[in-house]
């Protein structure tokens, strides 16, 4: 008779993992909050540096409604920078939890050592492409 995979034992261990590492849960939330605030502030500064103000907002809104995308570059660049910051933070948290579940608390680290920056960049790209695919399917 073959041995069966202990599905319930693995599930219980995986379900208890966040409860055993409650500090990591709060660290993950803190990374999300700080990345969100940083992305918003940096995007706001980039939009202001591009010369965008309230007077230009009405002109830009009218031109977008008419189908012309002139002058939207400053906002598009700021949005792209904010997206890169947030995707990087999301990927870093994702990689931390993958390493925690695969290697345990001793194998998981918040540092960028051991190629974790490369893994973060790859996962950021995957998340971006998944988002684009979901958007295209939704259209």
Describe this entry's structure for a reader.
- By secondary structure, this protein is mainly alpha-helical.
- Helix content is 78%, strand content 0%.
- Helix 2 packs antiparallel against helix 4.
- The N and C termini lie far apart (51 Å).
- The model has no long low-confidence stretch (mean pLDDT 84).
- The counted number of beta strands is 0
Which runs of at least 5 residues are low in confidence (pLDDT < 50)?
none
Cα-based radius of gyration, to the nearest Å: 21 Å
The amount of helix comes to over 70%
Major sheet characteristics: none
Nearest-integer average pLDDT = 84
Structural class: mainly alpha
Rough shape?
elongated
Task: Give descriptors for this structure.
mainly alpha; 5 helices; single chain
Layout: helices, strands, pairs:
Blueprint: H1 7-20, H2 22-49, H3 54-65, H4 73-103, H5 116-138
Helix pairs in contact: 2-4, 4-5
